[in-house]
Amino acid sequence: MASQNIDPRNPTTSVDTSKKSSDSNKQDAASHSVKKRLQQELMTLMMSGDKGISAFPVDENIFDWIGTINGAQGTVYEGLTYKLKLEFPNNYPYCAPNVRFTTPCFHPNVDDHGNICLDILKDKWTALYDVRTILISVQSLLSGPNIDSPLNLTAAQLWRDQATYRAVLFEKYESDVRKMQKI
Question: H helices of 49-148, where?
Fold first, then answer.
């Protein structure tokens, strides 16, 4: 299945420089193809009815999205809402989008800048994934972190004691939300 991540619009053979206008046309077609795919994913996401996840393009730019994830019921994140920024490359879906939290998120696999350590956003990415898959995976990561590969050591150490973790999580969340409202 490795071939799923090979962009057929980007051949690995060398291209004659006399074909620059042809390459430009191919890039325009590729961009149109990515836009079409993202529009389709937006419709699929809107029709899915998945609880606790949503995402929409920012303004008219189909390559930049804002996502929202609610903490799943029965988890320490229940009742909390997080915003994400999703930036799609021109060769999407053959390369993963850049996804990060814009709402500060205290979590073992999220650093202070909102970067997320999640395998499907890195080396396990496949063109079969879509925005819905990403959002569901990040939502799932909230309740099931990989504490063996933490970006936030404090959160990873606290994770074992869920009562203490929840108290620290809510304290940080309230403090961070207040800070964001002042900005």
Answer: 131-143
Catalytic: which of 55, 84, 117, 121? Answer: 117
* Residuewise pLDDT in 10s, the chain (183 residues): 444 566 655 555 444 544 555 555 555 666 889 999 999 999 999 999 899 999 999 998 999 999 999 999 999 999 999 999 999 999 999 999 999 999 999 999 999 999 999 999 999 999 999 999 999 999 999 999 999 989 999 999 999 999 999 999 999 999 988 888 776
How far apart (Å, rounded) are the C-alpha atoms in residues 173 and 106? 8
55 with 63: CB under 8 angstroms? no
- Cα–Cα distances in angstroms (integers) from residue 140 to residues 53, 75, 82, 146, in the given order: 11, 10, 13, 11
Residues 166 and 80: their CA atoms lie apart, in Å, by 11
Tell me, yes or no, if 117 is annotated catalytic: yes
Calpha distance 107→125 (Å, rounded): 22
* pTM for the full predicted model: 0.83
